[in-house]
Every structure is written in structure tokens, then in C-alpha cells.
Write a structure and sequence with these properties.
This protein is α/β, with parallel strands linked by helices. The chain folds into two domains: 149 residues, Outer membrane lipoprotein wza fold like (Roll); 65 residues, wza like domain (wza like fold, 2-Layer Sandwich), CATH 3.30.1950.10. The protein has five helices and twelve strands. Strands 1, 7, 8, 9, 10, 11 and 12 form a seven-stranded mixed β-sheet that branches. A three-stranded antiparallel β-sheet has the order 3-2-6, covered by helices on one side. A hairpin with a 4-residue loop joins strand 9 and strand 10.
Length: 233
Amino acid sequence: MKVPVTARGAAAACLALLAGCASAGVPLAKAAITANSTIEPGAATVAAGDILDVYFGGKTEWDHEVKVQADGTASFLSLAPMMVEGLSVVELERRLEESYAGVLPQPNLSIGVKTYGNRNVYVMGDVHEPGEFPLEGHMSLLEAISRAGGPIKETALMKCIVLVRWVPTTKKQYAWKIDASEDRWGKGEPLMLQPADVIFVPNTPIDDVDIWVDQWIRRLLPFPYLLQPYSST
């Protein structure tokens, strides 16, 4: 899924509307405990750019390879294109077996990931170089902000950072307001990221994360997964 990352100017325009008094977010170390517990192990979900091998157990003439397109869809043999990004391999296998049931008697298929595409995280808001960044190995929230050039010290409100995460296997979206002020750094375990995490560094206070995600993140970043229910923590 190719995600259009909005320029800082557009982000700043909407952030200017977020006025009001707001308390700091959850301390970084405390937020890390909760956020880290939602991370899925390994590259557990399908993403744009992945190349998948489809095996049909005994029907080798049906075996084929597909690439997940930038919009998150893939075209499987004899089936219409379907959205696959964000699905676990097990869930994709189940959906394909259901789809192929009308084409093959008792389809017995399996999926292998031949090549992984990019796994990106997105940093927006009051940082020097907002954009999308490859998640190579392990990356913490602070490392991602650093990769984006760091916060603009004069205006960035590090006590109200927002992290939005979609967890495909539980089909839940989470949003945290985090106090990542400098005096919170180095205390406790780092808050680790997973693919497709969105970090927003505001320059004005954010009172209600749920409302903010509804009204602004969804407008700035039209991710398919942001249409799903979510809970704030």
C-alpha cells in the first residue's frame, strides 16, 4: 500500500485548528509497556511489494506467484483482485480457500512469502523531514523521530505525540497520546514500532486523541485500516 504522506504545510494548517488546553500524554516508559504488548511477532502480515508463492498441494499446475500491488491488492489465478495487505498469512490462506471453493473441489493451498516488500513507518507533523521510513529490523519511536530529522525544537510539542497503530490479527486500531519530552528519554524500555505505525508530532495541544484521530489523521492519511474501529490507551 503506497501511503500518500502529506506535506508539513498541509499538516500545519490542520494542526492550527487544534487549539485548547491539554495535559501531557502518558509518560513514554508507561506507554511503551502497553504499545509493545500489541506488537505482532516478525513480519506477520502481508504488505505492498511482497511476492507470494501460492501452492495447491498436489495440483502443481495451479501453483503460481503473485505480487502485492501498491494499493494492497493482489491478483490470484482465476480470482478477481482482492485486498490482502494487513492480513496474516494464515488469514489469507483461509480467505483464498473460501474463494477457490467455487473453482476447485476441496482446495488445499498454502502461502509462502518469497520476498518481503518495504515495511514502513510514517512520521508527520512538527519534524524537520516528515515522511515514510523503512522499518529495518527494530526501530523505536524516538529513533523514527530522529530519522525524520528530529522535532522542531521551537514549536514541537513532544509531550503530546500521537502514535496510531493497526493490529491486523486482532483487527483493532490503537491510538496513544504520549509524553516523549526529553526528560522522559532513557527511562524504561523503548517504545518499539511495527510496520505502518503513524507518529504525529503536533505543535498545538491535543485534548482528545479519539476525536483527533477521527477528524484529522483520517483526513490527512486515507489508510484503509484507519476505517476500522479503534481504542485509545
